[in-house]
Amino acid sequence: AQTVTQSQPEMSVQEAETVTLSCTYDTSENNYYLFWYKQPPSRQMILVIRQEAYKQQNATENRFSVNFQKAAKSFSLKISDSQLGDTAMYFCAFMGEDSGYSTLTFGKGTMLLVSP
Amino acid sequence: GAVVSQHPSWVICKSGTSVKIECRSLDFQATTMFWYRQFPKQSLMLMATSNEGSKATYEQGVEKDKFLINHASLTLSTLTVTSAHPEDSSFYICSASWGQGGYGYTFGSGTRLTVV
Q1: Distance from CA of B97 to the nearest CA of A (A)
Q2: Neighbour-count burial of B41, counting CB atoms closer than 10 A to its CB (0-12 exposed, 13-18 middle, 19+ buried)
Q3: E strands present in B14-75
Q4: Does A96 touch chain B (CB under 8 A)?
Q5: Residues B8-57: pLDDT tens digits?
Q6: Are strands B90-97 and B32-38 parallel, antiparallel or unpaired?
Q7: Measured between CB atoms, does B9 come within 8 Å of chain A?
Q8: β-bridge mates for residue A51, sequence order
Q9: Contact B6, B21 (CB under 8 A)
Q10: Least CB-packed of A19, A28, A68, B105 within 10 Å?
Q11: Residue B100 pairs with which residues in a beta bridge?
Q12: CA–CA separation, B7 vs B23, rounded Å?
């Protein structure tokens, strides 16, 4: 079974600074997708960014980018120019070919607090 | 596009009664829907996978008779918590798949269930 590990339960950063959230995963599959989801205080799950394992290029979405290291099974999220609205729980998630690309496996999450 | 509506957003019920939670895909047909449970400050735990027109697939440890899932149409899945007890109090989230390969997953806004 796949496992997703987020080793940082909580992180703090000041507005306008950069922060990196860590995520590692364990799988024997070669084809899969990785995601970062954001869950703000409203508790609505929001997709931040996704990465296809077969793509070497790191995904970027505006201020959000990932550092995908397939051999190391690492998938970190970098948030640049942090904003107060980035305060949320962030979940790393895995979706593999074995599940027919249908089931998401989540990490335990990292609570990010952005302060003024 | 790809909006999932979940109702109610919160509900309080008496111990021993049943509660139904609805998850609707508003602008797409969802052949597969997923139900998660989330405890405070914890990750999402997959309860079951719901496929239109067939029985739901429950994760290990989830009581099928307590958490009844019905996916009678391509736009509606329901979760009924039967004979609810205080330990069933939690945040329940649905998500729906509208595409393949990790492109199309969207989440409902969740339901906070409190059993008194």
Answers
A1: 8
A2: exposed
A3: 19-25, 32-38, 44-51, 57-58, 67-73
A4: no
A5: 999 999 999 999 999 999 988 888 899 999 998 899 999 999 988 888 99
A6: antiparallel
A7: no
A8: A34
A9: yes
A10: A28
A11: none
A12: 7
Confidence (pLDDT) at A6:
98
Query: What residues does B61 pair with on adjacent strands?
Result: none
Which residues of chain A are under the pLDDT cut of 70?
Answer: none
What is the token pair recorded at B64? 């099928």
- CB contact B74 to A (< 8 Å): no
* Interface contact A43, partner B, CB < 8 A: yes
In A24-100, where does DSSP find H-type helix?
none
Going by C-beta distance under 8 Å and a sequence separation of 6 or more, which residues neighbour residue A45? A37, A38, A39, A91, B44, B93, B95, B107
Mind spelling out the 3-state secondary structure of A2-41?
Answer: CEEECCCCEEEEECCCCEEECCEEECCCCCEEEEEEEECC
The token duo for B113 is 């269930």
Q: How many CB atoms lie within 10 A of CB A28?
A: 8
Closest approach of B109 to chain A, Cα-based (Å): 5
Cβ distance A42 to B109 less than 8 Å, yes or no, reads yes
User: Does A101 sit within 8 Å of B102, measured CB to CB?
Assistant: yes
